[in-house]
Amino acid sequence: MPQVKVAVVGAGVIGFSSAVCIAESLPNAAVTIIAEKFSPDTTSDGAAGIFFAAEFHEIPVERQRRWFKDSFNHLLQIAHSAQAPHAGVMLSSGCQIFKQEPAVKRPFWADLVIGQGDMSPSELQRFPEHGFGQVFTTLKCECSRYLPWLQHRFIKAGGVVEQRHVSSLNELCGFDLIVNCSGLGSKALADDSAVFPVRGQVLKVSAPWIQHFIRDSDGKTYIYPGIESVTVGGTRQEHDWRLDIDEQDTTGILERCKKLEPSLENAVVLSKWVGLRPSRKCPRVERGVMKTKGKNIPVVHNYGHGGWGVTLAWGCAVDTLGLVTQSLRDIRPVAKL
Ligand SMILES: Cc1cc2nc3c(=O)[nH]c(=O)nc-3n(C[C@H](O)[C@H](O)[C@H](O)COP(=O)(O)OP(=O)(O)OC[C@H]3O[C@@H](n4cnc5c(N)ncnc54)[C@H](O)[C@@H]3O)c2cc1C
Ligand SMILES: O=C(O)CCC(=O)C(=O)O
Predict the structure, then answer these.
(1) Is the CB of 52 under 6 A from ligand 2?
(2) 133 touches 212 (CB < 8 A)
(3) For labeling, which of 83, 94, 213, 267 is most exposed (least CB within 10 Å)?
(4) Alpha-carbon gap, residue 235 to 197, rounded angstroms
(5) Structural domains of the chain ordered from first start
(6) Is the omega angle on the peptide bond into residue 94 within 30 degrees of 0, that is, cis?
(7) Distance (Å, whole) CA 135 – CA 117
(8) Taking the alpha carbons of 133, 230, 69, 283 in that order, is the dihedral positive or negative?
(9) What whole-number distance in Å separates Cα of residue 153 and Cα of residue 59?
């Protein structure tokens, strides 16, 4: 019989990863995921889902390496299994190109992906405006498949799913512990003014001959072949809440991407999409407490992953599980978890 009631707010890649980790690891926790939007309507659903990350300067790099490594190794196992197409996970090889050689040539995750190395001058000839590049094989996780797959796993582990808007975490005072994975919603739910949107527009095109990804290091031009289509992007517009398609952005994306991959001239545009990255100076993965109706309810926050939520989701979920376990030990020291 479950002894502790846990609410996870948010059904994007951060919420579902956390909920699955908790439900599968703590058999005595009854876990309910509560969210306004589920797949296919979350921000996570539209992400290209490439495993890549920028460094957050306020978080120890070792912690970020652990997030990346835990995520990468977990999804690599899925990529090498028969579950891969169902989960939307695949290996993806390609290059990141730079106008000039960067000051930091090796990102913190360089040795955690596969076969990272510098491009040779002859490989770079394809990109006359770029003077430096790196090739590597990483993962791509398409959340429009991954989220339903995680939901299935969550329900199999005894999890319960509830669709509704939460106006305040106080509404959840019937639970013993709350895990807040509400992304941009944390601006209101956690009263966190540091959370802001970074608007991103991408297109999905049909171009099955494109097999390798290309990313300009400015983060605004990328071509990511996926399971059924190629994602081309993008934009990074800070504090921009517009969710409608901007046709000027569409034109700019196609022009920039065709400069890197001229054969896109023959691609057919299948769809256009805008998402708001739940951004913050750095993600918040930490314990807090909510005082309500004379009770202290532990809250574990896991939000604010900006443009890297798919990449960091499993690693942050493992950290979240650790924080949940510590919090439950504080409130139920003798209970079996
Ligand atoms: C164009 C674009 C491309 C991207 N590409 C990549 C990529 O290639 N690789 C990568 O790693 N990342 C990428 N990202 C970033 C990634 O999409 C995000 O970091 C990730 O989706 C964040 O996940 P999340 O679960 O925190 O948020 P979301 O997916 O936004 O989920 C938030 C959840 O919280 C719920 N919620 C919020 N407020 C409330 C409330 N008050 N009541 C109830 N429910 C609430 C929502 O309904 C939703 O279920 C991209 C983003 C964009 C926009
Ligand atoms: O930046 C990238 O290369 C991948 C896409 C992404 O993470 C984003 O647009 O947020």
Answers:
(1) yes
(2) no
(3) 83
(4) 12
(5) 4-195+280-331 (3.40.50.720)
(6) no
(7) 6
(8) positive
(9) 31
